[in-house]
Automatic annotation (TrEMBL), chain A:
It comes from Saccoglossus kowalevskii (Acorn worm). It is found in: Endoplasmic reticulum membrane. It comes from the Eukaryota. The lineage of its organism: Eukaryota, Metazoa, Hemichordata, Enteropneusta, Harrimaniidae. This is ER lumen protein-retaining receptor. It is a multi-pass membrane protein. The gene is LOC100377465. Keywords: Endoplasmic reticulum, ER-Golgi transport, Membrane, Protein transport, Receptor, Transmembrane, Transmembrane helix, Transport. The chain crosses the membrane at residues 62-80, 92-111, 117-138, 174-199. InterPro entries: ER_ret_rcpt (IPR000133). Belongs to the ERD2 family. Coiled coil: none annotated. PROSITE patterns: ER_LUMEN_RECEPTOR_1, ER_LUMEN_RECEPTOR_2.
Length: 212, 10
């Protein structure tokens, strides 16, 4: 464990908590893409299947459980409890356009052709593109609530910090996982234009609006 | 059994 990975994990945890609290306290999931949340729940499910078979540390197991519980709780709130506030008209990105190619790629490019490893690879590739329905929804509505933009900033920062962690691990322990690194770079690049808008607008107290 | 390399990152 290094400070970059710890900050990354905390940023990820912060993002998940921000979103869950936003939905719970405002009793509304307006402006949030339920499809992205379903994809994130799928990412954690396929990545953490080794939760009970491969113990790394208390921290590792605890965080995996928290991510799983929070992501399913968010999906539950969006599609059941506060279903009336779910904006399905703007959340129209076709998830199968992501899941099918990612599933195929996971079969073709992986470290080890075993069920657990292919599912882990699937989760890594899927996480890289899971935010697309959310970004697509914001481009359709042309704006995002400030709290949603904080959620996205924390979520985007987490994988950017992981990239720094991978550089650090490469130089300190010679460790690198090319699949995670390439997918992590793609994932972070997808946030770039959002990062620009967040820093130039939200941090100046303005509403996050996309140029129509 | 399910092998797979162990991943220590979240």
């Amino acid at each position: 464990m290094n400070i970059f990975r710890l900050l990354g994990d905390l940023s990820h945890l912060l993002a998940i908590i921000i979103l869950l609290l936003k939905i719970w306290r405002t009793r509304s999931c307006a402006g949030v893409s339920g499809k992205s949340q379903i994809l994130f729940a799928l990412v954690f499910t396929t990545r953490y299947l080794d939760l009970f078979t491969n113990f790394i540390s208390m921290y590792n197991s605890a965080m995996k459980l928290i991510y799983l519980v929070c992501s399913y709780a968010t999906v539950f709130l969006m599609y059941f409890k506060f279903k009336a506030t779910y904006d399905s008209n703007h959340d129209t990105f076709r998830m199968e356009f992501l899941v099918v190619p990612v599933g195929g790629l996971a079969f073709l490019v992986n470290h080890d052709f075993t069920p657990l490893e292919i599912l882990w690879t699937f989760s890594i590739y899927l996480e890289a593109v899971a935010i697309l329905p959310q970004l697509f929804m914001i481009s359709k509505t042309g704006e995002a609530e400030t709290i949603t933009s904080h959620y996205l900033f924390a979520l985007g920062s987490y994988r950017a910090l992981y990239i720094v962690n991978w550089v650090f691990r490469f130089y300190t322990e010679g460790f690198f996982d090319l699949i995670a690194i390439v997918a992590g770079c793609v994932q972070t690049i997808l946030y770039c234009d959002f990062f620009y808008l967040y820093i130039t607008k939200v941090l100046k107290g303005k509403q996050l609006t996309l140029p129509a | 059994g399910w092998k797979g390399t162990t991943h220590d990152e979240l």
